[in-house]
Amino acid sequence: MPLIPNNVASPSEPVSDPSRISNAERAYRALKQLILTNQLPAGSQLLEQEAALQLGMSRTPVREAMVRLEQDGVAEIRPRHGMRVLPVSADDLREIYEVLTSLESTAADLVARRGVSAAELAQLQQAVSDMDTALAIDDLEAWAAADQRFHSLLVELTRNQRLQQIVKQLGEQAHRARMLTLRLRPNPVGSNRDHAMLVAAIAGRDADQARSIHHDHRAKAGIMLVELLEKLGFR
Amino acid sequence: MPLIPNNVASPSEPVSDPSRISNAERAYRALKQLILTNQLPAGSQLLEQEAALQLGMSRTPVREAMVRLEQDGVAEIRPRHGMRVLPVSADDLREIYEVLTSLESTAADLVARRGVSAAELAQLQQAVSDMDTALAIDDLEAWAAADQRFHSLLVELTRNQRLQQIVKQLGEQAHRARMLTLRLRPNPVGSNRDHAMLVAAIAGRDADQARSIHHDHRAKAGIMLVELLEKLGFR
DNA sequence: CGATCAATCTATGCATACATTAACAAACGC
DNA sequence: GCGTTTGTTAATGTATGCATAGATTGATCG
Lengths: 235, 235
Hints:
The structure is a homodimer.
Chain A: H1 23-36, E1 45-46, H2 48-55, H3 59-72, E2 75-78, E3 82-85, H4 90-114, H5 118-136, H6 140-156, H7 161-181, H8 189-203, H9 207-231
Chain A binds a DNA duplex through helix 3.
């Protein structure tokens, strides 16, 4: 007997209270947070039961969280060994940056082409300025945060939710590697300059220029990180 | 100890099936298939219990499948209303094609830049030739299949697994809309020409040309589909 | 007749139980 | 000793039970 849809929903109406977070959601966020901060380092394994105990819930919601993390590409479920946090090899990072370079330079193009409001431009400029400040006082954590905010803003301005979501997901995968190498890489002065130039191109509605600048920016960063990771011996 | 040698398998039941698929996986594939073929059309809802009954399993693996489908972006879980198959609006399609255009033109660039073996080139040419044949006998289903194969091949040749996975996922989201409009759109003769030109550019290692051709190809197709969907009144 | 509210129903989210089977180890034959 | 076999353990995959909250229904009131 085939699965027959028994009714068709009217256009999606908000139904439930979004403020209530399920245990499955809590587990998902908690585990993801642990992974992104390297508290659950690459390669570590976690059994459903262990995680459930730690989080004060049963295996069921934990399992759901692990399934989601697997689909996010940050972990894998190995049938008798629990969830294993995926390492990010130099090759993985190369893949990630190839995609990010493509999508973010497209974002720069789209945003420049459409044009941005004064307020939006100000936000971008603020992020660049925060990066400069952070660099001046040698606060690399703050610099990384501002950098991330800049990229995030840029992508949000495309108003393409799928593009946003994909870039965010890949950014999370790359995050751990970036944090590991934050203090090993040359001071990112060039990065700040690139961003300032991109903002100028966006303000001037020069889509080709914006695309080109951001493409090179991401490609450079990608190559640098991949080489760094290779030197560190991450295969 | 057993008097009957245990290497004699009972006729009906294989002892150890190495490719044993979990019920959760079965549910995932079955539901996804139904959605992609529009047997479970956009907007339809399906309760966990209903699906479980139809698939001959309990709610637990069904639920896992639904969580995965939600992360795939083809359905949403609405508490107390079951899983709802997401409609693909004209706006959704615009988003999807923006990303696909970006990623696939990058793929064309990468593949042309690296160069392909004679065998790989032949596969691409075969796909183009199949598209021509299908068009000549007016078999649109076959044409769509060959078209999909071409795009799929192109992306596989990048050897970037993340790029492949993302393009595949977005392709699945767009699939239903493409099938719906397959007979309403103008005959895709231009599409075949674009593909032939792309193959030539790849053979000639002309990355810029390859990128440009494929970018325009995808952008054209996207605009056409979006307009078609808007005319059909999909919001 | 339409709106409001209470009573009922139901799908879900989670906990828990259980059968299965891979992984490990111990025992065994060579 | 060493590879093989068998027994044990434990983690999973799935089923099931249950409390809850949201949805639905129907009764009451204007």
